[in-house]
Specification:
Structural class: alpha+beta
Order of helices and strands: HEHEEHHEEHEEHEHEHEHHHHHHHHH
Distance between the termini: 27 Å
Shape: elongated
Radius of gyration: 31 Å
Number of helices: 17
Strand order of the largest sheet: 2-3-8-5-7-6
Helix content: 55-70%
Number of strands: 10
Length: 383
């Protein structure tokens, strides 16, 4: 019974480690892809009317895949007697195609009609109760000055598309409109707010930033400056979770001491006989260390199967429990994503397995030493 509890404890600890690390990896990867796909790898804060020449000079750099001028403003959006806050980004039609994360996430409508209206986030459209083909009113706080004060600019646009990238922050906030419309609505003239630069390799952003800096005289920031602190926090959280769950495995492995101690007590006569027949203390110790390690191996194998199965089907399991409990277990408002991301890495499985088996081996040493150093004379004298 104690042995079964030891195996079960290690299995649950290993399974929990695999699931949590898979979710943490998936969460970090999906956030990185979505955030960088929507915001660019390098941002050039170009507030002059020479943004086209600046963009063309950056395009000549080999490591650059896309250069996208953007306008950005906060607005109020109104429809069906509902008014919500939003962010309007002005962008060229061709640049939407170059912005792969956005282009691939359009779930209704078409980029072909982009010059005729605006594209809304799916959650924003849902909250406004609008759909493809409806009209929305955008209210800009940068309005006209009159003798009675400032009057907001109000303009009505047709909804020509909806996008859903799976991140609540973007799906519930962002509106994309043709840059020529936004330049008129927000009085940019022949200027933009900034230029987004996309690279072949995001990890080389610091090097490319220096190359761009030599070409332009504007302020530049790469994603490590803009989003780096957020991803470092995720990495720290992942490491802390790994440490905490490792302690669960350690606590579970302590049951091995009880299992081996009971086994030693049951087999003390056999141990004494083996010692009198010439078996060395090392031989006795090795036998019980192997027993403890086997408990760890069995628990680890079961835990790996449980953890891998859970990681690969985590959203199916979530949907099942939500249907049973009639509650939301993964609120996108809280977690920013519409589903639980999971990225199973075999290197994590191998590392966790080695850790669990190693802990089981170390925990098995004290009771094995006790068995090896029992006095066979005293044991057999009373039998």
């Amino acid at each position: 019974m104690v042995t079964m509890l030891s195996v079960l404890g290690i299995a649950l600890g290993v399974a929990a480690l695999i699931v949590v690390m898979s979710v943490m990896h998936g969460f970090s990867t999906q956030l990185l892809n979505s955030i960088l796909g929507m915001n660019g790898h390098i941002t050039v804060y170009c507030d002059g009317d020479d943004y086209r020449s600046v963009a063309n000079s950056i395009k000549n750099i080999e490591a650059v895949t896309a250069v996208i001028p953007i306008t950005e403003n906060q607005v109020m959006i109104q429809s069906n007697n509902k008014v919500l806050g939003a962010v309007v980004r002005g962008i060229d039609q061709q640049d939407i195609i170059n912005k792969k994360v956005l282009f691939n996430s359009i779930v209704d409508g078409s980029v072909d009609k982009f010059n005729q209206g605006v594209i809304l986030g799916a959650r924003l459209a849902e909250n406004l109760q609008v759909k493809y083909g409806d009209s929305v009113t955008i209210i800009s706080p940068d309005g006209f000055m009159t003798i009675l004060g400032s009057i907001p600019r109000v303009k009505t646009y047709k909804v020509v598309g909806l996008f859903d990238i799976g991140m609540y922050e973007y799906d519930n906030t962002f509106i994309y409109m043709p840059i020529k419309f936004s330049q008129i609505l927000f009085k940019y003239g022949n200027k933009v707010r900034y230029i987004e630069v996309f690279l072949k390799d995001v990890n080389k952003s610091s090097e490319i930033l220096k190359l761009i800096q030599n070409k332009v005289n504007y302020k530049l920031e790469d994603w490590k400056i803009q989003q780096g602190q957020y991803f470092r926090a995720l990495q720290i959280e992942s490491n802390v979770m790994f440490l905490i769950l490792t302690l669960i495995v350690v606590v579970a492995a302590f049951n091995i001491i009880s299992s081996i101690s009971i086994l030693v007590q049951d087999k003390k006569q056999a141990i004494a006989i083996m010692r009198t027949m010439g078996a060395s203390r090392w031989c006795i110790m090795r036998i019980f260390c192997i027993c403890g390690t086997l408990i760890g191996v069995v628990g680890t194998v079961i835990g790996c199967m449980m953890g891998i199965g859970f990681s690969l089907n985590i959203n199916r399991i979530r949907i099942f429990f939500e249907s049973v409990t009639h509650s939301s277990l993964f609120d996108p408002i809280v977690y920013f994503l519409s589903s639980i991301p999971s990225e199973l890495l075999m290197e994590d499985v191998v590392r966790i397995s080695a850790l669990a088996i190693g802990i089981a081996f170390i925990i098995a040493i004290p009771p094995s030493l006790k068995a090896a150093y029992q006095d066979p004379v005293n044991i057999l004298k009373y039998e």
